[in-house]
Queue: 3 jobs
Job 1
Amino acid sequence: MTTTRDLTEAQHAVLREHATERPFTSPLNDEKRAGDFRCAGCGALLYVSDTKYESGSGWPSFYDAVPDAVATTTDTSHGMTRTEVHCATCEGHLGHVFPDGPRPTGLRHCINGLALEFEPKD
């Protein structure tokens, strides 16, 4: 069963208050090992390393999520319309999805590293 976890102040700001970490600050941006990316808020499996790619954006980027792991809403903050991505389990803010990613989906899930925990494969 997935439960809510204790968060650092920075994780709380991102996951619960919809903040954005500064680009190129997350060590997960450069993570290249095989493994799973889980929600830092509840532990739900969100992304797998096979879908991670280097977008040059400064945030960990994925072209697809685990089926039914994330949900989206329309975000009209900051004078623009974007698609927000959040954890389908705990509703924690993860980042945004854009239609400029690679095949096969053409999507770029631009995700705050603070919202994720990486679990390497053995």
Job 2
Amino acid sequence: MKLGDGVEQAIHCMLMLSGLSADSAMPATALAEYHGVSPSYLLKHLQALAGAGLLASVPGPRGGYRLGRAAEKISLLDVVVALEGAAPAFRCSEIRQRGPDPLAAKFFAKPCGVTAAMLKAERAYRDELRKVSIAELAGNPGTELGNAIEGRSCAFRERHERRPAAR
């Protein structure tokens, strides 16, 4: 199974957005700059995440993107499904029924062992992704790497975070 590059980009963008202050947003161009990726390619994925309710799109000069719900309520599976779709990665095309001398139709009433094994593996994969939230991945304090990432992220957020106008 191979997930598109957009999944990695989306997860890292959501991690960045999880650190924004309340009601703030960050423009897609800043997210693309931070991660060193194509703005147009990333925008397509951010729009898919917004369509799935995982991100909120904020219009206007102080606009951009922010999480659509609490980071604790967004799983890695939510992100994968928003970008890759809900269909299983393995799709049985019933190859058993092709070729010369096919078996009788009664032998194809149940999925074959290949399909059953692949779908079982997919369920396990999805169950694991469902267990991990954006909030869990956002914090890795106390490690040298975690501190370095947080320092870099904080400085970037300070420069690019768009806070709502004062009332």
Job 3
Amino acid sequence: MKKTTWTIDPLHSEILFKIRHLVISTVTGSFQKFEGHAVSEADGFNNAKVYLTIDVKSIDTNQAQRDVHLQNGDFFSADLYPLITFESTSFVNTGGNNFVMVGDLTLRGVTKPVELNVEYGGSQRSLQGVIKHGFEVTGVINRMDFGMTWNVLTDTGNLGLGENIKLVANIQVSEQVAA
């Protein structure tokens, strides 16, 4: 069976996260440096293997002081754990353009299984003649599961930061052409 490797196009992809702040609002951030690929069999993506690596120091919440705090030991410990990695263990079509992807997420030296929803956006040939596919990946992880336990209490006794982190990745892949 023919296997095809699809490489993430970082110019047309993004990895975002959202977390509740002071119970009343949401802070959004992104990672600016990441790479990955998927290996599929036949023509579809059912049972594809997905690999992703994220550079923790590329975190961007649009506020430099917060980014530095997120990189320190209270959160990501970026000097000790500079990479976040993900490797899928299953990628199953649940009907139409919807998939469920399960895999091992390693964050801050802790590896846990996570389940993510994937919506296939379709395919298109680029102006250069390269086939591209688009996906939106969403899910929720609990930061406490990965040792990110830092928090503060508000004056009303609520947690300053939520425990759940919403993930949204808009990913475009292109067929990796042999050199």
